[in-house]
Structures are given as C-alpha cells and as structure tokens.
Design a protein that fits this description.
- By secondary structure, this protein is an alpha/beta fold.
- It has ten helices and seven strands.
- Helix 4 links the parallel strand 1 and strand 2.
- Helix 6 packs across helix 7 and helix 9 packs across helix 10.
- The two termini are 30 Å apart.
Length: 232
C-alpha cells in the first residue's frame, strides 16, 4: 500500500506501477492498447487537468478562463456531483474538453472494501454515461492514490490510469493564486500533465476561486502551449 501511495508523487514508483504522469507516458500505454497508434507524443504542449467537479461556480469560471485563452483541458469528475449537475458536464464536453472519471464518492481507496470499490467504479462510470452518453477512458483516484485492488479494478474495466507531473496544491486554505502559479510552472516540462481543481467540495472553502485566478496567470505564462485534450 505504501508503494501505491507514493506513486502519486514519486516518478520511479509511478513508472514501476505503469501509472503515467506525462503525455508521452500516457501515449505509450494507449498505443500499446491500440487506442493512440500513429499519434505523436513529442508535442511541446502540456495538459491541464481538473479534479473534483462539476462545481456550480468553479467549473464555469474555469471554462470561461480556458475559452478566453483558447485552451482545452480534461476534467476528472466525481459521480455524486455529476448526478447533481449533468448540464455542467454536458457544457464542458460541448466546449471541447474531455471528461474522465475521478470516482463516484471522493474517498481514499485504501479505506474501502473490494465490494465498495467495485460499486464506486460502476456508479461513477454510469453517472458519466447518463450525462453525456460516453464511457470515460481515463481515471485518476481520489488523492491520486490507488489501492492494489483499486488499480486492478480500474484496468479490468478498461480505464486508463493517469496521475500528474506538476500540481498547484490549490486545495490548501492559505495558498494564493501566485503560489499556485509558481508551483505549477517552476519545473514544468513539455508533455507534463498538470493537476488543478475546479471545485471546493473536498478541499478548503472557496479554493476554486483562487484556482480560477491562478489559471489565468498560468495560461499567460504558457503562451499557447496548452491545447491538448486527453487522450492524445
């Protein structure tokens, strides 16, 4: 379990578990699965991803900022929130972004039984299918931590795991848009996957407001390098 927990922040561990953190790593796994054959993984782009939505204020704010910069992103949604706001997931898809599965309930996998995990995957996938008539391909577990059983189940369902290479730690109570921006951009490399959050359901109150401000700063720094919707 410790090895799985470290995978979300430790690149060698993620590689050993075959959990991609970058676009080239993701492309390699999708190509092996016959999904992304013939597509290039050498892009200079980075991939923005957002967890925990849809949120009634946070998601529209993020979508508006992305649209202003002509940037695309992938949203890892939570089933219990999708059922409350399917129209926001539909809007996200209609504006050219990708929808992926985070979970049905935002709970640590290691604290759930195999039966609970199975039900969570089933309900989460069903929520997305009901909202947009598409089955998600990508999956990222709550807190970025797979349990051994959770990882096996994801792969058995045909869900492609994806972690991240850079994050803003934007869920914290005392952070600022400037700190979020600095964390995301200071070590950012071509092909990196970036983690941010468009909701405050499972983090500090109003954290999504700081993320929306930071996103504008991040996109200004990236100068058009964001344009990849996953899967690539």
């Amino acid at each position: 379990m410790i090895r799985h927990a470290l995978a979300s922040i430790h690149a060698p561990t993620a590689k050993a578990l075959k959990l991609p953190r970058t676009l080239p790593e993701l492309h390699e796994q999708l190509t092996t699965s016959g999904i992304a054959a013939g597509q290039s993984a050498s892009s200079n782009n980075v991939a923005l991803t957002f967890d925990d939505g849809p949120h009634p204020e946070g998601t529209p704010a993020i979508l508006e900022t992305l649209a202003a910069h002509n940037a695309k992103a992938t949203f890892f949604v939570v089933g219990e929130q999708v059922r409350k706001r399917p129209e926001l997931v539909q809007r996200t898809l209609a504006e050219g972004h990708a929808i992926a599965l985070h979970a049905d309930e935002h709970r640590l996998q290691s604290r759930r039984t195999a039966r609970q995990l199975k039900a969570d995957y089933e309900r989460g996938v069903a929520a997305i299918e009901d909202a947009i008539a598409q089955t998600p391909l990508l999956h990222r577990p709550p807190f970025g931590i797979y349990s051994p059983a959770g990882l096996r189940m994801a792969r058995a369902r045909g869900l492609q795991p994806l972690l991240w290479a850079d994050w803003g730690r934007d869920w914290r109570k005392y952070t600022t848009p400037e700190r979020i921006t600095k964390r995301v951009t200071r070590n950012l490399a071509p092909g990196d996957v970036v983690l941010l959050h468009d909701a405050d359901f499972y983090s500090a109150k109003s954290s999504h407001e700081r993320t929306a401000v930071a996103l504008n700063l991040i996109l200004n720094k990236l100068e058009g390098r964001v344009g990849t919707v996953l899967p690539v």
